[in-house]
Design goal:
Blueprint: H1 13-64, E1 68-73, E2 78-83, E3 95-101, E4 108-112, E5 119-124, E6 134-139, E7 145-150, E8 156-160
Antiparallel strand pairs: 1-2, 1-5, 2-3, 4-6, 6-7, 7-8
Length: 163
């Protein structure tokens, strides 16, 4: 049990235990930061999903020369894209494009244009414009908030929202 000779290679059990202890201590300090990061990542991802759906509806309205809408259901916490039956003032929305999307667990679609309940439609016309300006807020319980803004010209923007 003396000093190792140059021909012996490897590590001792004590060296392994010390390294494992250092890793465990680092993990304890990093776990709260990882939790915060994960919550912010989820709300940012939900914001991107909604912005992508809005962009898809706009592009389809332009390419197919018919109205498309994104239906945001605040009561059921979901949104979906629908195809209209006319170039303007569609009276029927017969075809859902893709699937209905719900935000991840812990993320909520907080409001649409200040409304906190109900179903809200963001309609894109074949010229790419919407029928009104729209602001949608998405948040998580940690207070991270993101905003999706749709201008009347059809421009979709996302950004962090400070309240």
């Amino acid at each position: 049990m003396g000093a190792r000779s140059n021909s012996e290679k490897g590590v001792t059990i004590i060296e392994l235990v010390v390294v494992m202890a250092i890793i465990a201590i680092m993990g304890l300090f990093m776990s709260p930061a990882v939790g915060e990061w994960a919550g912010r990542f989820r709300v940012r991802g939900a914001t991107k999903d909604l912005a992508d759906a809005l962009q898809m509806a706009r592009l389809k309205a332009i390419s197919e020369t018919v109205e498309y809408k994104v239906e945001v259901d605040l009561d059921d916490q979901e949104f979906s894209v629908w195809k209209g039956n006319a170039r303007r003032n569609s009276t029927n929305w017969p075809a859902q494009e893709g699937s209905t999307i719900s935000p991840p667990r812990g993320v909520t679609i907080d409001n649409v244009d200040g409304n906190t309940a109900g179903v809200h439609d963001i309609i894109f016309r074949p010229n790419g414009m919407t029928t009104a300006n729209n602001i949608i807020l998405i948040r998580n319980p940690d207070g991270d908030q993101f905003q999706v803004t749709v201008s009347q010209t059809g421009c979709v923007r996302t950004n962090a929202y400070g309240g």
